[in-house]
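Amino acid chain
________________
===
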Amino acid sequence: MKGSYKVVLQNKRVKYEFTVRRNITIIRGDSATGKTTLISMVAAVSNPGSMLGVTVECEKRCVTFTGIGWRSIIEELHDCIIFLDEEHYFITSEEFASVVKRSDNYFVLITRQRLENLPYSIEEIYGIRVSGKYSTLKQVYNEFFHLYHTAGVTPAIPKSVIVEDSNSGYEFFKNICDSVGVMCSSAYGKSNIKRLLITAGSDTIVVIADGAAIGSEVDELFQYMAMHQNVKCYFPESFEWVILKAGLMHNKVIQAILRAPENYIDSADYFSWERYFTKLLIQSTKDTYLRYSKNKLNPVYLQVREKKAILSVMSSVIKFENNRESKISNMKIF
């Protein structure tokens, strides 16, 4: 399944309107924010005999079910948007993650739990809030909003950088940091980032991680940032996405894909967008001087022109300033 789909669920009293665009969408919120009502309304439209008067507008079938026999139910469903909440106990399990990985459905998971077995994006974690849009009709309108934002932070010059991976992305940023005398460490995986932050001290620290799969860690990371103003985070889709965005290949097809990835990434083939962007970059640079390997960085990406193009993608977050001798002398994080 690929593409983005607008969902409108409503009855005489409540209306939800939102769009899903990846295989995994997370909805969070405290009690009384409408999460239970949402899943109940999906259950009503899933049951043809329901008397709740709920209607749904969506190109795809929206369904939910009880937890009994959940695996076989999911495997029998195709090209659907499946809604599950924290009452579905299995959503935290490795078995559920393995089923989602092979599924051609989209999943909307309504839960406050940390789903560490699923690689979901920071961009697809939402809260629910009530809008006055339909107040004159005496209908409560519920809209989704992004829970986490990394834009608009105050500029800072880091004393150290923590990179999620230990492969090509780390090699690139390690080279940059070495040029300006900034310490750069690999976390060797997203689950280790907070541990490194705790031992990193009070100097300004920048975390660089793949936003496409960091979802299970962002709650703790943003709580940590709220208590430690010295910590800043940059979450692009992935390092490979940054390179593709840099336009080094001058490929119009790639640029079209980057404008609307959801139209190209099939959920049955890619567990997360990060994997798709890695494959796209490898295939696009094969047999060229830009040949890319995730395990070992091609030195060409550290040449002046290529490095500058890649850094320009991050210019609103990370900036490098040249001194009189045309050497990098400062790095600013925005």
About this structure: The chain has a mean pLDDT of 85. The longest strand covers residues 14-20. Residues 194 and 221 are 7 Å apart (CA to CA). The radius of gyration is 22 Å.
